[in-house]
Amino acid sequence: MTVTKPALTLAVTTIVLAALPVTAWAENALAALDTNGDGVIGRQEAVSAQVESFRRLDENEDGQISLDELEAGQATPESEQPPRDVQRARDKARERWFKNLDRDQSDGISLSEYQSAMTPYFDRLDADSNGVLDGPELKRAIGMDDADR
Ligand SMILES: [Ca+2]
Ligand SMILES: [Ca+2]
Ligand SMILES: [Ca+2]
């Protein structure tokens, strides 16, 4: 299975970005997701973060994330707006990602659609396959994002 880098990193950032500004991602991802404080992110922690971010994104609580809700959830503060071309690339990636996830083409992402798309990303990020994501593994995900632009 091949996954393009932008799709990968967008999905990964979406796990946590519902809560965090883009620039704070690398520093805060561990702290935000590591609920039991063992310094790494376990699968269970990733899953709960996913469910939580889904709830947060689903603003009208209809059990579906619309493209608008996805966009609103990823909005960055005015002061942290990236350059316009980066913004545009991000918008495009988001749309592509949305279409990929919306398997039944209902124009909404259900929790199960959301989760089924996330699991492979966790496995992929877990470079040493030890079932947890550590700092370097997370940073690599961010690094890939930067390297692409
Ligand atoms: Ca909704
Ligand atoms: Ca759907
Ligand atoms: Ca690992």
From TrEMBL:
Residues 81-92 have a biased composition (Basic and acidic residues). The keyword Signal applies. The keyword Signal applies. PROSITE patterns: EF_HAND_1 (PS00018), EF_HAND_2 (PS50222). Residues 89-124 form the EF-hand domain. Pfam families: EF-hand_5 (PF13202), EF-hand_7 (PF13499). Gene3D superfamilies: EF-hand. It comes from the Bacteria. Keywords: Signal. Residues 1-26 form the signal peptide. It comes from Salinisphaera dokdonensis CL-ES53. This is Signal transduction protein with EFhand domain-containing protein. Residues 60-92 are annotated as: Disordered.
